[in-house]
Amino acid sequence: MKLEQIDVPVNNQLLVDYRNQKSTISSFFHYTNEDESFERRLEDLKNHPIRRAELVKVISEFMAPLEKSVKMEQHLRELENNAVVVVGGQQAGLLTGPLYSVHKAISVLLLAKEQRAKLDVPVVPVFWIAGEDHDIDEINHTFTALNGRLQKHIHPDRSKKKTMASTTTLDIEDTRKFIKNVFQQYGETAYTEELLAKIDTLLVRSHTYTDFFAQLMHWLFKEEGLLLLDAADPKLRAYEAPYFERLVNHSEEIADVVSNREALLADSGYGTPIGATKENANLFYVKEGERFLLERKDGKFINNVANVQFTKEDMLQLAIEQPACLSNNVVTRPLMQDMVLPVLAFVGGPGELAYWSTLKDAFELLGMKVPVFVPRMNMTLVNRQVSHLLETHDLSVTEVLSGKVAQMHHTFVNEVYDDAAKEAIEKTKALLQQQYVDLQKHLHKNDVHLDKLVIKNLDIHENQLDFLLKKIEAEVLLQHDVAIRRFNEMEGQLIPEGILMERVFNPFQYMNEYGMTLIGDILQLPLEVSELHQVIYI
């Protein structure tokens, strides 16, 4: 395994400006992403009340079904005393979802270790599972690459209901079939049997999407002591009851300041990532496992689809007596995290950075500050086959990610293309068209009007010539199939359909090639959370 750190251009202007600490975006945060900010944030957290014993009990009970580890127990003890946390989170995707879920967890772990050393205080890594998210279509699939083309594998159990990931049951047999189909695309290796057996062991302990995600993530990061929380855990919701009260009491003000802040963000050229409105309650109501976004209208909290309406007093009563009936959205989730946890820093992607850019005034409204926001690491895994192809073509990963392979592919196809055949067919079409013009003139001269039939007949002949040209093109490309497959393989593995591979593939594709120790070995590399793109040759 080898590490290479490269500079890859970023298209997201907000992220670029945040990294460069441009005033146009840094003014939307309380801290910039630099060392002195962590020291200031640590000092500010001394006045931040956390019910630590209750919190640790919630996390311990959620992680009880998972295998214990020395680091996990250490981090729980530290959190109960005076530790602060680095937190990141993601939806509960099948087979962990895209690799960036794993990369986010690695970023959280590395940043926690780094700040523990620099600040000389216990800093604990926490992964916040967004189990309350209800868009199952976003998490019920994964991708493989076949001959450089993406293949989408969707879990067969599809529900019409928008139930939360933490309440959506996973059928064990259906999920086994799903995993088997995915691994068939990977191909049999020396690690496949052991890997499938381990995944199956964790699957049978799981009842929901969130259970399975938590089992897999804990297995991958157990020795590092990554603590896991489920946003939809009823015990966490009970712990959050007084915080839901605060969110209900300040719902109108939160909606107002977030809408105003987002307007400022748009004026600065960064768009409207949330689409905030002053009527949004920024809370969901949970009914039979489904979430319904509430709006404020005429002094009430309503959702017409669910046929519910609550007064503010009703909402406060729900917060106190039935907090599991309430759920956060993208606005209130960061606020809730900061009330629940002593957050030193939050690790997130570009989308989360955009959301968080709208929240400064909402944090202040609740007497808090936006934690230090640290962009997650970007990583690309390169297997041996792709590494060999790069060497053969004298290409770097930087060049592939910047589109050079696509250019080479296009140039190669143009070079082998049969221009003479195309020219001959175009000449034939031109002659044919002229002959049909002459035919039309002759028919008109003899008072025969078959214009539509003549045009249709010409179209048939032109379509046949086009079909012939495509067949010629396909035959030529087939003669150069090996070269073209190499281009497809490099693109398909590193930047499938123009997207970074970490946004497409899951980690088990690479564990199937490398072995069970992949994540542990990656964590042994001299990685640092930075704006450099981490390329790992496995």
Characterization of this structure:
There is one protein chain. With 538 residues, the chain is an alpha/beta fold. It has 2 domains: 11-235 and 334-383 and 516-530, no CATH class; 384-499, no CATH class. It is 52% helix and 15% strand. It is built from 24 helices and 15 strands. A hairpin with a 4-residue loop joins strand 9 (300-303) and strand 10 (308-311). The longest helix has 29 residues, at 451-479. The radius of gyration is 28 Å and the shape is globular. The N and C termini lie close together (5 Å). The mean pLDDT is 92. Involved in bacillithiol (BSH) biosynthesis. May catalyze the last step of the pathway, the addition of cysteine to glucosamine malate (GlcN-Mal) to generate BSH. Keywords: Ligase.
Write the layout of secondary structure elements.
Elements: E1 2-6, H1 13-19, H2 23-26, H3 35-45, H4 52-63, H5 70-80, E2 84-90, H6 99-119, E3 123-129, E4 141-146, E5 149-154, H7 172-186, H8 192-203, H9 209-221, E6 227-230, H10 234-239, H11 241-249, H12 251-267, E7 280-287, E8 290-297, E9 300-303, E10 308-311, H13 312-321, E11 326-328, H14 332-340, E12 343-348, H15 350-356, H16 360-365, E13 372-375, E14 379-382, H17 384-392, H18 397-401, H19 404-416, H20 419-445, H21 451-479, H22 481-494, H23 508-514, H24 518-523, E15 533-537
Parallel strand pairs: 2-3, 2-12, 3-6, 12-13, 14-15
Antiparallel strand pairs: 1-15, 4-5, 7-8, 7-11, 8-9, 9-10
Helix pairs in contact: 4-5, 7-8, 11-13, 19-22, 20-21
Keywords: Ligase
Enzyme class: ligase
Domain Bacillithiol biosynthesis BshC C-terminal coiled-coil: 379-538
